[in-house]
Amino acid sequence: MNLLLQWTQQLAERVAQAIKESGHFARYNASAVGLLGVIGFPLYYYIWAYLFPQPYESLCLRLTGAAVCLPLLFHKRWPARWQGYFPVYLAASLTYSLPFLFTYMLLRNQMSLVWSLSTMAAFFLLVLAIYDWLLIILMAVTGVALAWALYLMGGHLTVPLNAYLEQIPIYAFLVIGGGVFNYSARLVKEEKLKAYATMGRNIAHELRTPLLGIRSAMSAVSHYLPTLIDAHEQATSAGLPVTRIRTSRFEKLRESATRIEDEITYSNTIIDMLLLSAGQASLRT
Questions:
Q1: Distance CA 160, CA 228 (A)
Q2: Distance from C-alpha of 276 to C-alpha of 263, rounded to nearest angstrom
Q3: Which residue, 1, 103, 200, 228, is the most exposed by fewest CB within 10 angstroms?
Q4: Is the distance from CB of 225 to CB of 253 less than 8 angstroms?
């Protein structure tokens, strides 16, 4: 029992992480997905209801799909307190718009060729939109199960089960195969990021070394420079043959050590920030 509970907890954490990561990467094309849904659902209702009439169409389901996709179109304008819910909303909206809606329409249209191809296209879009293979499978299974539940609740039992079972291997191939390719692409990206991070660490080390040398040299300069400036001023006042230095230059010399020290500190801070953004450093208290 404890082992089952542990596995369930690990699975829940894995799914939560997958939703978060997929939401992060999907932000870049979420507006395009929203636009596709807002335009595509009403447009294809007109196509399948009037241009090429199908046995079943539902304006209500399609308008709901368009309404679900509409917030994705303006996700960048969501209030800050809502931004954290974007990954969950994305997963829920795509589950409705792709596997659920298309599977339900497939069943209501008696497994027609048009809807068989449309359902395959929906699963393909799901693979393109979602980053993680486990989340793809979970969303596909959830959407299909909900579609069958609604279909059976409506008392529609006219679809031969074998006709749907014949198509399951095709859908499974799309989902699992696409998930595998996504996973391979993810590994490649992670390896590239690791290589970039390693290169960044090496560059940071090469930059810190001369900065450390300059700081060590400046400690001696800052210690003795005031004495040298005072000696030059005394020699000038005594009429000794020394090169004259303008007063403004003296002031810059007095400030030079502090300015160089500040620039070194600033450069090290920038290096720390770059390493932190690349995930190769941690914040110290």
A1: 98
A2: 20
A3: 1
A4: yes
CA–CA gap between residue 130 and residue 98 (Å, rounded): 12
Distance between CA atoms of residues 115 and 119, nearest Å = 6
Tell which residue, 110, 204, 212, 214, has the closest CA to residue 164: 110
Question: CB–CB of 137/176 below 8 Å?
Answer: yes
pLDDT digits (tens, 9 = 90+) for 177-224: 776 776 655 666 666 666 666 777 777 767 777 877 777 777 767 766
The first and second tokens of residue 251, run together, are 């002031």
157, two tokens: 């039992």
How many alpha carbons fall within 13 Å on the CB side of residue 248? 0
Instruction: Please state, in angstroms and rounded to a whole number, the distance separating the CA atoms of residues 44 and 63.
Output: 11
Asked whether 93 and 141 are in contact (CB, 8 A), the reply is no
269-284 confidence digits (pLDDT tens) = 887 777 776 655 555 6
> Which are the contacts of 201, defined by CB distance < 8 A and separation ≥ 6?
275, 280
